[in-house]
Amino acid sequence: MSQTNINEINEIEEIAGGEFEREPVPQSKLKGWKSFIGMYAGEHAAGTEFMIGPLFLTAGVSAFDLIVGLLLGNILAVLCWRFLTAEIAIKNRLTLYFQLEKICGKKLVTGYNLANGILFCFLAGSMITVSATAVGIPFNMEMPKLTDTMPNGMTWIIIVIAIGAVISMIAAKGYDTVTKAANWMSPIIVLAFVACGVVAINQLGVSNLSEFWDIWGNGAEPFPGQIKFTFWHVVIWSWFANGAMHIGMSDLSVFRFAKEAKAGWATAAGMYVGHYMAWIAAALLYAVYVQSPEAQAFLSNGEAPPVAPGPLAYNAIGILGIIAVVLAGWTTANPTIYRAGLAFQAIMPKLSTAKVTILAGSIATIAGLFPAFAMKLLGFVALYGFILAPFGAVIAFEHFFHEKWGITKNYAEVAGIKYNKAVLFAWAISFGLFYFISIKFDIFLSFVTLPSWLLCGVLFMVFSKYFQKKKK
């Protein structure tokens, strides 16, 4: 990645992180779609990829399920970014938070910020866990098992706290520091994923496409404690893995300074470098480990072999693997903690950015002590999207249908109200109904994310029509 490209990415992310929070982005700050490619490629080839790839294997996916399912699911995600998020962003050029405030009112946005901040902290915590599995290798640290929920020893606790403290302090220095570090590290991480995939293929003795396909075969029973993933699990989960960002409209904050909506296509760089190549490369690392005597001993005892990214990468590419896993966890946790701090600052505006970031980092570090957040990452990411995505439906349905339905756009701002009952009722009903369906009928949350999003959007329009008419 050239120095010019890195500087341009830094400029984009710096704007997204702090400037023009309550006003449209001016024409002089707009960027072409090529400027977004490096940013998305770097952001989505990171710590989460080292966990997600192996977790697919623990869910018993087949070759067709994984390779074709990811291909289709990631295309659907890119289409959502292009034709929903980017399309709305270039029309309004506002951050997600300010757009929501105009529609929902300040009180409801406070609730959204709290949920967003806490979920960000848990995600960052899982990435601290990922880095800890690499840092712990020289200390012969016992790695967390797939079914572990609690810390497994004092060495683990000390390493997680140390990593969390360093990451939090860097994040507290501001978005510019965070993004410069992340963008310099991202090419190393991408190269490491490629190297891991190539080495793993050699270790598996693969010499042609047929043998590569046979690695996963027709699928298998899931490991103990895991659910079975089918083709549609892979498609729908990969589609909504970033549901909060695309149909949830979080990336309005990024695309608001794109010159054209076609900048949304740049997300394909993230999906197919990170969510395709990197996931498959990480899965190959785990496929090598599963064949080892150690992993087979776990399976023969009815236990799931550990999914520890550090040892997996180290076994493939040595010290570079340790460095790559540490950097990957680092580059995901750092901006995530910073964003969580911004969400908390919106609730506690009297605290400085540095203080709320340290607060967010402390919560993330505590979460990182508990391996369950990382080991259950597939389920957590599904929950994250399910909770936050419906708020994006409110923005999308108002944007595209407010004239047809005859409702006032940005109603909270126009009416001078602090919370919009139409938003609250729409989200609560859609969330409650589909969460109940998921629990009652044991349906994976990703399968009900889109129905919940659609219902929330429709209910918002219906309630808006009713309450606005009543107000008149």
TrEMBL record:
Sequence intervals crossing the membrane: 63-84, 117-141, 153-172, 184-209, 229-248, 269-292, 312-333, 354-374, 380-401, 422-437, 443-463
Under InterPro entries, the record lists: CodB
> Which top-rank group of organisms is this from?
Bacteria
Keywords recorded for this protein, A-Z = Membrane, Transmembrane, Transmembrane helix
Keyword Membrane among UniProt keywords: yes
Signal peptide from the UniProt entry = none
**Under which name does UniProt file this protein?**
Purine-cytosine permease-like protein
